[in-house]
């Protein structure tokens, strides 16, 4: 087992980062901390995809020196997925931060428990 962990250390780091983000997302009541946890989870997924898409000894999929064999290049799909994911993640983060600002203006707190209590009081 030890040799597998040593050989796949990037994947192990990605899983640990995902666990940290997941724990942060569920244990903190502060909305900013939840957004940070979600971003850590996103980063872990991008790291995992990049690690899976890398093949040692292969080059980026740009034809150089007339080499057209597909076995000489890495798969470009994981890189494309990572770039697309980063763009979507930045957009979602911006939306979450904008909604957090509106919540703070409305309730004067970022604690979800307090916001839930104030919403419940308004309903009654």
TrEMBL record:
The keyword Membrane applies. InterPro entries: CPA3_antiporter_subunitC, NUOK/Mnh_C1-like. The chain crosses the membrane at residues 6-27, 39-57, 77-99. It is a multi-pass membrane protein. Keywords: Cell membrane, Membrane, Transmembrane, Transmembrane helix. It holds the Pfam family Oxidored_q2. It comes from the Bacteria. Gene3D superfamilies: 1.10.287.3510. GO terms for cellular component: plasma membrane. Belongs to the CPA3 antiporters (TC 2.A.63) subunit C family. This is Multisubunit sodium/proton antiporter, MrpC subunit (TC 2.A.63.1). It comes from Hespellia stercorisuis DSM 15480.
